[in-house]
Amino acid sequence: MTKPIYVLNGPNLNLLGSREPEIYGTQTLDDIRDSLIETADGRAIEFRQTNSEGDLVTWVQEAQREGAALILNAGAYTHTSVALHDALRACTIPVIEVHLSNPAARESFRHINYVTPAATATIAGLGARGYHFALEAAIKMTA
Ligand code: DQA
Question: What mean pLDDT comes out for the span 55-60?
């Protein structure tokens, strides 16, 4: 059986739609999940969000064991979490980092990034479309 593609979302992404829409857009996380499931055309997607760093680390480990690929928007943990970096380092599946905004073009504290050095690829600054590009790549890479 084909393994699912994990799409994991970190802190505050549950607020999408109402949170700083000028930066993050007006789509909610549920909107993004629903349109990804449509795009996936039957390919199983395991889509989750958490505000907890520990949950995110546990889910990255689960994705490595049970998933075909991982799409990850780690939110602010991108800029702080060595634990997340270590969990990603242990992944042999493709890891595609996604950000709605482009952290490299924002405040200097967002220029520190613990995910990019452990990711296969990064898509940033394209809004919700970034998730779709990531899914397209993940499907092609694991076909
Ligand atoms: C984000 C960028 C991060 O810097 C920020 O902390 C987020 C969202 C993005 O998708 O643009 O929570 O990951």
Answer: 98
The domain in which residue 42 lies consists of: 5-141
pTM: 0.98
Does residue 71 line the site of ligand 1, with CB under 6 A?
Answer: no
Count: domains in the chain = 1
Rounded to the nearest angstrom, the distance between the alpha carbon of 141 and the centre of ligand 1 is 25
**Helix residue spans in the chain (DSSP H):** 21-24, 29-40, 53-66, 82-89, 129-141
24 has catalytic annotation: yes
Are 32 and 99 in contact, with CB atoms under 8 Å apart?
A: no
Q: Tell me the pLDDT tens digit for each residue of 69-95.
A: 999 999 999 999 999 999 999 999 999
10 Cα nearest atom in ligand 1:
12
CATH number at residue 86: 3.40.50.9100
Catalytic pick among 99, 114, 131, 132: 99
Q: What is the DSSP letter of 79?
A: G
